[in-house]
Amino acid sequence: MAIIINEKTNVIVQGITGNQGRFHTCQMLAYGTKIVGGVSPGKGGQEVEGIPVYDTVYEAVDNQQVDASVLFIPAPFAKDAAFEAITAGVKVLVIVTEHIPVHDEMDIVELACRKGTTVVGPNTFGIVSSGKCKIGIPPNQFFVEGPIGVVARSGTLTYEIVGNLTANGLGQSTVVGLGGDRVVGLSFVDVLEKFEKDPQTRAVVLVGEIGGNAEEEASLYIKKMTKPVVAYIAGKSAPPGKRMGHAGAIIERGKGTFNGKVEALQAAGAKVATLPFEVPELIRQILK
Amino acid sequence: MAIIINEKTNVIVQGITGNQGRFHTCQMLAYGTKIVGGVSPGKGGQEVEGIPVYDTVYEAVDNQQVDASVLFIPAPFAKDAAFEAITAGVKVLVIVTEHIPVHDEMDIVELACRKGTTVVGPNTFGIVSSGKCKIGIPPNQFFVEGPIGVVARSGTLTYEIVGNLTANGLGQSTVVGLGGDRVVGLSFVDVLEKFEKDPQTRAVVLVGEIGGNAEEEASLYIKKMTKPVVAYIAGKSAPPGKRMGHAGAIIERGKGTFNGKVEALQAAGAKVATLPFEVPELIRQILK
Amino acid sequence: MKLFEYMGKEIFSSYGITVPRGRMADNSQDAANIAREIGGTVVVKSQILAGKRGKGGGIKFASSPEEAGEAAAQVLAMTLNGHKVEKVLVEEKIQIDKELYLAITVDGSAKKPVIIASAQGGMDIEEVPDEHIVKQYVDVSIGVYPYLGREISRQLGLTGSIGKEFNRLLPILYKIFREKDAELVEINPLVISGDKLIAADSKMTVDDDALFRQKAVPYVEDRTSIEKQAHDLGLAFVELGGDIAVMANGAGMSMGSLDTLAYYGGKPANFLDAGGGTGVEGTTKAIELLLQTNPKVIFINIFGGITRCDDVANALVQVKNAREIPVPVVIRLVGTNEEAGVRILKENGFEAYKVMHEAAAKAVEIANAS
Amino acid sequence: MKLFEYMGKEIFSSYGITVPRGRMADNSQDAANIAREIGGTVVVKSQILAGKRGKGGGIKFASSPEEAGEAAAQVLAMTLNGHKVEKVLVEEKIQIDKELYLAITVDGSAKKPVIIASAQGGMDIEEVPDEHIVKQYVDVSIGVYPYLGREISRQLGLTGSIGKEFNRLLPILYKIFREKDAELVEINPLVISGDKLIAADSKMTVDDDALFRQKAVPYVEDRTSIEKQAHDLGLAFVELGGDIAVMANGAGMSMGSLDTLAYYGGKPANFLDAGGGTGVEGTTKAIELLLQTNPKVIFINIFGGITRCDDVANALVQVKNAREIPVPVVIRLVGTNEEAGVRILKENGFEAYKVMHEAAAKAVEIANAS
């Protein structure tokens, strides 16, 4: 098992003929992802890495079973591409693109919710069901199969933590990048609920950061979970009013502070690591 | 039984303090309709015929169980009022108003479909579950309880036919006015499906007219029905390209003709009356 | 409300759709001047609210200002499909590499807008085989985005810069359709001209019910004199040319009345839906309209719901007292306040029928006998 | 991107929201002239990208042109909350019967817009008790219609013409919020003045990521010089004032780096997210930025995913060869092409750490020792 995607997931790549799309198609194929097609308007009929390219998502779904799509589309055109995938009936949409206008993100998330499409991102590294399927951009080598579910708002920090887990013999069921923007498709709770139900997952690592109240909301659910949760929250030393790279990572009007999040998580029974490298050890203690 | 509405349906009247709203509130109460409130912005706190008036539909649903709403709202404001009712969670919406712009009608029907609201109309006389509940404007005296379901696109012609039925001892389960506009909430098929399942209904009268292809679509379903259908189609003598009062009643580009409809209905097994007065006799023959 | 071709093109152009260069003229001299300004060969197109102008000679090419003036003079003298030509559009002649069809209209059955496109433009879309027509419904809560353009242009086989131009044009056309409360926007032909897409014609119908909020759209009158009077009174009226003037309440009832008359061999002069709840004054005016059609008989068919029978009776009496009614009146009157209505009629020398088809049969008998 | 009050008001006014009459001045003489035009008592308001101007003396009343000129001179000499005042808005003083609060912003948790309104305006909304705040989420597929205004004005207790005006205003404010890609539009106070609703202040933040399509919105620079350089390079950079210059790839990783430094007692000079997949050139420029903060030590923390370790190493060597690096560099380098990267570093006299917190501890040690 795993959540959201697995070894049977048929994936298309929107923007497959661009530099990013081409490079990561290669990487995903190397990881074992079942990529069944690419979409690039005006490039239909070509092939990329042996994968057929279609002009539109509609054409792709007419020709292939498509379960998921990943977008390598520049921000100004991402909403259009996302709407195309959603209205064409794609059920999992991974939006790697960063700097999508927040109003476009609200529109995407609203339509996806209405049509029953799961949106991973925007501004995410993607999602990996380790050993089965990778949709997105994280480096292949750190993701190995195992019992730990990981859900995170940031990218490289997650690789760091996943790398540490793997180095300590702790593989992952699924690693989900929610995305660094203020409005993203999945919330921590959405993913925690799935991990709670997933037989493969024995413990969950939550990688949060300052800003918003996603971690506080997650805490309410963690309280009810049977599976243990270890958390790390980035941004302890960040000053209020400054955006730390991510649109969501900003302490405004005294809300979304590090302390508030840590207190909520601890009150819910989660262990909170002070530094990223402590995560595997905390997991080990719990799973013993 | 009956369809869509019955003696337990709690109704509010949007536009209750206007002339039309006030008059028909009176008439509906006289028929026995359970009217629990009225809505009229700025008139909250007043009473009309002993019925409490609220400023907004939201306020009404906060204070009452509301199952249905009927709109006596001028066309330019009807979409706003309909959206208010739909978003407030009202599940049956009767829109009497005529001359609503067709783009507004498309918007209303789309939102209603999405939110699970049944829209009767626009430009309808309403709906009557005879002897139980009347929502709309038809004259009370002709509607008596019985085994005949009636579904119609036009108003007075339906009173004529219902009057004939009643005069011939044939009461009605429910009489539904779909509305005379090109875009309306319910189609013949939607209503026929409900009559087919309704234990009270033994036969159905379909009152159609030229224009559109609602009757042709109905025929496809009538073919599968176990209950008999008698139809009357108005507009046999209407010339192409002219709107016969209703926005939908126009033969354009050779589509929606009288003959096409009659042939489709007859091929589906429906009896088609040549003149309105023949309807009760055809029903009698079938039910014998 | 139908718009003239040039009006639709003005709207298209203001939204960024390319149309041929051109201007309106209502006389030969202006037409020649416009042709001179444009230069080269021009097209002189009659502006009427009907199609198939080309077959009737309503579209002429002219290779000089003088020829354009002559062509305009000829076209301005024409009556095409019953429409008197009062204006012509003088336009540059564009290079035509291929003609497409594109329209957006309201689909009453689907209850949403539908985009209809074809790579076989230039002819009536009804004549294009189904397999060459691309249909795409639009969810009004989403609207039309470029992706829909890409999918349709793929199906039409449009590629390269023409494909891109189509994808740009489609959302614009939808915007016009929505913002102008159109029932139909049609570009036929949509011409591929080099690397451009040009709207060589325009057909646009604006929802009558939305005119109250479409003040910027020019008003086009397409009603006969009586129809216009009826419209101003808030009545639905259509001239039909027969000899039995008809009034009923409700559109379906009015149609049913016509059908019943026709069944008995009668020829209705008109359709008139007096509406529900029309009082004495409105009914009086409606009856006066009927008299303008110079009928042999007047047939009034009232099933009183909101409409009160006594109001109708009083209206008829009022007309009778105000002026002579030169033809027989057959009236069927049942429903709300029926007794009072029938009594008033009797007191004033009118007989009232109870049953619709009997009254209709009587009206036909009178008309056909006289 | 935050807009100045007067910019927001210009936008409000262009959409039909009533704002006080007034104009901008950047000197005393102009301010006096504007006051003369307006007549009566005026308000001279400092234009800075921060709130609480009143408390700092940044808002002054003046009952004559001369007083207005003086007030402007005073305000233009001020620095409020760290912001130098460069312009003032001179406005008519409006009659205040009651102050409301109205804002629309993005709710990241609900993933949709939220309307926030209160009958207790004029103060910071954070200070208004929850029970006096009306919150209404907006479905973006529907938008804001008058009915939502009616419901909110009912909850606010607004009636009569003021209620109607509020119902008119709310959809307009939402239109601005959507059309201008705003993250926040706030009117505080929204003043009831007789039978009018007047936006006496405006706060508006436009989404940085949408500026590419908001060409009509004035550009407002609110970055420090280094932050601006970083922004032009496409890097996320925040000055923090400490002595350890930090570069990492990824926002979370960068925050984690700061936290780890802080954990060991270090003071970061900045936040710098070099992003993923930045090549040699970008990394070179990022390192040069770091040097501008005059740090005691540079801490580079790279977990190479898309980012290649050899690129980072080469960039560091390139900077070293192009100019002297006057402070020690502590670098942690793991991931893609790690071996090559570490080798390049060694060859050029840099040591590479494998473990993040060990490297961070070392950087802090150096900074605190020097």
From TrEMBL, chains A, B:
<dbReference type="InterPro" id="IPR036291">
    <property type="entry name" value="NAD(P)-bd_dom_sf"/>
</dbReference>
<comment type="similarity">
    <text>Belongs to the succinate/malate CoA ligase alpha subunit family.</text>
</comment>
<keyword id="KW-0547">Nucleotide-binding</keyword>
<protein>
    <recommendedName>
        <fullName>Succinate--CoA ligase [ADP-forming] subunit alpha</fullName>
        <ecNumber>6.2.1.5</ecNumber>
    </recommendedName>
</protein>
<comment type="pathway">
    <text>Carbohydrate metabolism; tricarboxylic acid cycle; succinate from succinyl-CoA (ligase route): step 1/1.</text>
</comment>
<feature type="binding site">
    <location>
        <position position="159"/>
    </location>
    <ligand>
        <name>substrate</name>
    </ligand>
</feature>
<dbReference type="Pfam" id="PF02629">
    <property type="entry name" value="CoA_binding"/>
</dbReference>
<feature type="binding site">
    <location>
        <position position="43"/>
    </location>
    <ligand>
        <name>CoA</name>
    </ligand>
</feature>
<dbReference type="GO" id="GO:0009361">
    <property type="term" value="C:succinate-CoA ligase complex (ADP-forming)"/>
</dbReference>
<comment type="subunit">
    <text>Heterotetramer of two alpha and two beta subunits.</text>
</comment>
<dbReference type="InterPro" id="IPR005810">
    <property type="entry name" value="CoA_lig_alpha"/>
</dbReference>
<dbReference type="InterPro" id="IPR003781">
    <property type="entry name" value="CoA-bd"/>
</dbReference>
<dbReference type="GO" id="GO:0004775">
    <property type="term" value="F:succinate-CoA ligase (ADP-forming) activity"/>
</dbReference>
<dbReference type="GO" id="GO:0004776">
    <property type="term" value="F:succinate-CoA ligase (GDP-forming) activity"/>
</dbReference>
<comment type="function">
    <text>Succinyl-CoA synthetase functions in the citric acid cycle (TCA), coupling the hydrolysis of succinyl-CoA to the synthesis of either ATP or GTP and thus represents the only step of substrate-level phosphorylation in the TCA. The alpha subunit of the enzyme binds the substrates coenzyme A and phosphate, while succinate binding and nucleotide specificity is provided by the beta subunit.</text>
</comment>
<keyword id="KW-0436">Ligase</keyword>
<dbReference type="GO" id="GO:0006099">
    <property type="term" value="P:tricarboxylic acid cycle"/>
</dbReference>
<feature type="domain" description="CoA-binding">
    <location>
        <begin position="4"/>
        <end position="100"/>
    </location>
</feature>
<dbReference type="GO" id="GO:0000166">
    <property type="term" value="F:nucleotide binding"/>
</dbReference>
<keyword id="KW-0816">Tricarboxylic acid cycle</keyword>
<feature type="binding site">
    <location>
        <begin position="96"/>
        <end position="98"/>
    </location>
    <ligand>
        <name>CoA</name>
    </ligand>
</feature>
<dbReference type="InterPro" id="IPR017440">
    <property type="entry name" value="Cit_synth/succinyl-CoA_lig_AS"/>
</dbReference>
TrEMBL record, chains C, D:
<comment type="similarity">
    <text>Belongs to the succinate/malate CoA ligase beta subunit family.</text>
</comment>
<feature type="binding site">
    <location>
        <begin position="305"/>
        <end position="307"/>
    </location>
    <ligand>
        <name>substrate</name>
    </ligand>
</feature>
<dbReference type="InterPro" id="IPR005811">
    <property type="entry name" value="SUCC_ACL_C"/>
</dbReference>
<dbReference type="GO" id="GO:0005524">
    <property type="term" value="F:ATP binding"/>
</dbReference>
<keyword id="KW-0436">Ligase</keyword>
<keyword id="KW-0479">Metal-binding</keyword>
<dbReference type="GO" id="GO:0004775">
    <property type="term" value="F:succinate-CoA ligase (ADP-forming) activity"/>
</dbReference>
<feature type="binding site">
    <location>
        <position position="45"/>
    </location>
    <ligand>
        <name>ATP</name>
    </ligand>
</feature>
<feature type="binding site">
    <location>
        <position position="91"/>
    </location>
    <ligand>
        <name>ATP</name>
    </ligand>
</feature>
<keyword id="KW-0816">Tricarboxylic acid cycle</keyword>
<protein>
    <recommendedName>
        <fullName>Succinate--CoA ligase [ADP-forming] subunit beta</fullName>
        <ecNumber>6.2.1.5</ecNumber>
    </recommendedName>
</protein>
<dbReference type="GO" id="GO:0042709">
    <property type="term" value="C:succinate-CoA ligase complex"/>
</dbReference>
<feature type="binding site">
    <location>
        <position position="94"/>
    </location>
    <ligand>
        <name>ATP</name>
    </ligand>
</feature>
<keyword id="KW-0067">ATP-binding</keyword>
<comment type="pathway">
    <text>Carbohydrate metabolism; tricarboxylic acid cycle; succinate from succinyl-CoA (ligase route): step 1/1.</text>
</comment>
<dbReference type="GO" id="GO:0000287">
    <property type="term" value="F:magnesium ion binding"/>
</dbReference>
<dbReference type="InterPro" id="IPR017866">
    <property type="entry name" value="Succ-CoA_synthase_bsu_CS"/>
</dbReference>
<dbReference type="GO" id="GO:0006104">
    <property type="term" value="P:succinyl-CoA metabolic process"/>
</dbReference>
<feature type="binding site">
    <location>
        <position position="201"/>
    </location>
    <ligand>
        <name>Mg(2+)</name>
    </ligand>
</feature>
<dbReference type="InterPro" id="IPR011761">
    <property type="entry name" value="ATP-grasp"/>
</dbReference>
<dbReference type="Pfam" id="PF08442">
    <property type="entry name" value="ATP-grasp_2"/>
</dbReference>
<dbReference type="InterPro" id="IPR013650">
    <property type="entry name" value="ATP-grasp_succ-CoA_synth-type"/>
</dbReference>
